[in-house]
Amino acid sequence: MNYFVGIDVSKDTFNIAVLHQQSFILSKHLPMSQEGFSQLLSILKQYPKPIVVMESTGRFFLPLYHFLLANDIQAFVINPKILHRFFQFLSANNPSKSDTKDAKLLALFAQTNPQFLNPLPPDHHLRNLSRLIQKLKKELSEAKTQIKYALSVLFPEVEKHLNIFSFSFLNILLKYPGASYLKKASTDDIASIINSTSKARKPSFSPQEIINLAKKSIGIHNPYLSQTFIFYIEKILFLEPRIQKLENMLLEEIDHDQNQQIKLISSIRGISPKLAVHFIAEVKDVNRFSNAKKLIKYAGTDPVIKQSGKFRINMSISKQGSPWLRNILFQMAVGVVTWNSYFREYFLRKKKEFKSYKKAMVAVMNKLIRVIYGLCKKGSYFNPVLSFNSKNFISICEGSHA
């Protein structure tokens, strides 16, 4: 009989519980340190082929997980949502929680639900890297919004005349944060900043044009807002090169099969290769899903339907899947509705049917998933001339294609 070891991990400590047959034979509290890891290894070596399970909450479990793998110990990671439902089922009459109890629940879950025991995929870092990039891009977008707001007060005319987020102009604003400062600047000083930051590309503005525009500006002089303005400029100049570096790292980690799927997905007009990379980082491999419906469910864009007798009501989407993947799909949907006539026509038809922008966009997201699934299964590039409603294509998406 197997020995199941549940480990509940926190920042500084972890609890273990060893289950054999129907009895817990050991419970122990250990520190998250080399000493604690060594003690755990000594305990595990007492049992023949122990099966270790832990919950994938946060990142605290990763050092211990990789330590176990390095020492040839079978280790599996459980999705916290699945474990939570298991906890609710077993603890209906005793909902109290403790670290020791959680460790025991993990061991019991592993014993009774072996179908959920999956090792952490070797490319799990791709998903983490992709999510970090998305977080930083969100911060970048927020910083740009703050800069637009500040400029509407400090130098409102400038946005109509040039690209306010060009590298050269941001560096000019860093030294002269507003029209009240710029109108006193010398053309030589502005030219010096442009020459040192233009990156071999001639800017669309001259020093004199900026100074003249500043002199005619209705912008106010506000040192406090200017300092806030400088903070967000520095944030943009800090984030942009680092996001680029992380995106290059992500591209380097993509394997051959994933790269082929990225090419197929980005053949859809409106989806950039970078966005396709983030999609694959979340999905891992489109072909691991037996049909398109399972991929839709994985994304959490499947509709919630409530039925009672003759009444059948379509509610909102389930949102049970990955919120990161849904965000990527929404960005994809915006792109294809804007640039792809096939999806734009589909969107307009659904918007007329549902009388709702949001519901129409969800329909586009699900249509996009079905098309992506079919393209990756067939190994074909997107061709709007082909009928995605044909029996052959539908059979592929439903997983019934031989």
Automatic annotation (TrEMBL):
Q: Which residues form a coiled coil?
A: 126-153
Where on the tree of life does the source sit, at the highest rank? Bacteria
Question: Which one GO biological process term can you cite for this protein?
Answer: DNA transposition
Keywords, in A-Z order: Coiled coil
- Secretion signal, residue range per the UniProt entry: none
List residues traversing the bilayer.
Answer: none
- Molecular function as annotated in GO: DNA binding; transposase activity
Which residue range or ranges hold the Transposase IS116/IS110/IS902 C-terminal domain? 263-347
- Matching Pfam families, A to Z? DEDD_Tnp_IS110 (PF01548), Transposase_20 (PF02371)
Which ranges carry the Transposase IS110-like N-terminal domain?
A: 5-156
* The protein's name in its UniProt record: Transposase
Say which species the protein is native to: Thermodesulfobacterium commune DSM 2178
Instruction: Tell me the organism's taxonomic lineage.
Output: Bacteria, Pseudomonadati, Thermodesulfobacteriota, Thermodesulfobacteria, Thermodesulfobacteriales
